[in-house]
Amino acid sequence: MSSMPISRKRNNNSRRTKILVSILGFLCLSVLISGCSRTPKNNAGQSDGTGSAVLTSSLSEEQLAHVKECNGRRVSSDQPVELVVMNGGKPEPFAVLQPGQLVQLKEINDPNLITSQYLPLDGMDQEGGAQVLVNALEVTPSGRWLNPTNHLLEKDFAVKLKAGTRMLDDNGETILTTSTDQQWLVYAQKDGAYGVELQGRIVWVDSAQVEETIARSDSGGPAATSLPVLMYHDLTTDPSKTNSMTVTDERFRLDMEFLQQFGYTPLLPADLINIREGKMQLPDKAVMVTFDDGYRSNYDYAYPVLQNTGMKAAIAVVAHNIRQEGDADSARHNMTWDELREMVDSGAVEVGSHTYNLHNPQYGGNNAPDGINGVMRLKGESRSAYNARVGGTRSARMTVGCRTCWHRRGYRSAR
């Protein structure tokens, strides 16, 4: 058995050592590269739009459950809450949400991506894609409604606001206070104030807090000029009870799903006022859904459909017919004030007047024994006799007032 020369053994040992060193070096390099390429994710699993990610934080199970409960909800706090934007993975002040005020959070579809207490606000992304965030541990979900106004019409300029500018609602209450100098598009103007858009709402800033106005050249194009109105009265689950004033709840559901599927935007009478005043643009595919009288089916059948489809409706109620608590006799026919309030608070319904006592519910909607139906003229009654009976001057004022009210809402005629 021959032995290997010492020089050859040394060469082989040296070669093995070089190979081991190379392997170890490659492994170390791979680990380093892998570690560098692992960018921390924010609570949406994305960067904040500035090239930096939001660092994750260690949350207890209880804290994480609260953050997930806030996801996609309207939230508020009884204390001032700081809103932030991320810069280099660190939160920087953006504005302060005032006590009792609402903001809408963007929904993160996969809750498993929520790893931080910071959640993004809906419709508040800044230039470059940076998200405005709130610490969800400092807020709680709210059932109150923001009542946003869609399709606001931008003016042809923006304003640069100073840090510390207060954003006020129509009642003069402060919603936000800016923490930095910021630029906002203008949607409305009034004496001494500019209206800017905050999550679909017009909020007002004092013109004294505006450092400068900035002209724009990309304001919106021409608006639509027509609005179809669909009028309903009563709904029923029994097809044998349909008539010219009553359709089935299934028919109504199919109607609303059709509007939703084909991209129609529901408007309410309050939206028409904003359109007339130049605060809002009439969408190309707008529609208004209305109900007359205020039947209980509007709450039992129509309201759930509106919620499920995202549609809205204006309900004109006969105030005398609103059901009081414990009034079992009219339980099948009319809603309560609390039910009306619930629908209004949801943002899906606007309630209006269909007179105080128009349809003689005690007589099944038919004329009373004396022939009167609400304030209608009797058969064969002259105008002068009618005016004398109901009060001519008062009647004229009410008629003019009613027409003026509906004209403000965009109707060409009112009866």
The SSE string, one letter per element, is HHEEEEEEEEEEEEEEEEEHEHEHEHEHH
How much of the polypeptide forms β-strand, as a percent range? 15-25%
Shape: globular
Strand segment count = 21
Q: Specify the helix fraction band.
A: 25-40%
Largest sheet: 6 strands, antiparallel
Model regions low in confidence, pLDDT < 50 over at least 5 residues: 1-13, 17-55, 393-415
Going across the major beta sheet, what is the strand order? 5-6-2-3-10-9
Mean pLDDT: 76
Distance between the termini: 121 Å
Round the Cα radius of gyration to an integer and report it: 32 Å
Number of helices, counting only DSSP H or I runs of 4 residues or more: 8
Main structural class: alpha+beta
Write structural notes for this entry.
The chain is of the alpha+beta class and 415 residues long. Helices cover 27% and strands 24% of the residues. The chain has 8 helices and 21 strands. Strands 5-6-2-3-10-9 form a 6-stranded antiparallel β-sheet, with no helix packed on it. A 5-stranded antiparallel β-sheet has the order 13-12-11-8-14, with no helix packed on it. α5 links the parallel β19 and β20. The protein is globular. The N and C termini lie far apart (121 Å).
What keywords describe this structure?
415 residues; alpha+beta; 24% strand; globular; disordered N terminus; disordered C terminus
Task: Present the secondary structure layout.
Layout: H1 6-37, H2 61-70, E1 74-76, E2 81-87, E3 90-97, E4 103-104, E5 118-120, E6 132-135, E7 140-141, E8 157-161, E9 166-168, E10 174-178, E11 182-190, E12 193-198, E13 201-206, E14 210-215, E15 229-232, E16 234-236, E17 246-248, H3 249-261, E18 265-266, H4 269-276, E19 286-293, H5 297-309, E20 313-317, H6 337-346, E21 349-353, H7 383-390, H8 392-408
Parallel strand pairs: 15-19, 16-17, 18-19, 19-20, 20-21
Antiparallel strand pairs: 1-4, 1-7, 2-3, 2-6, 3-10, 5-6, 8-11, 8-14, 9-10, 11-12, 12-13
Helix pairs in contact: 3-5, 7-8
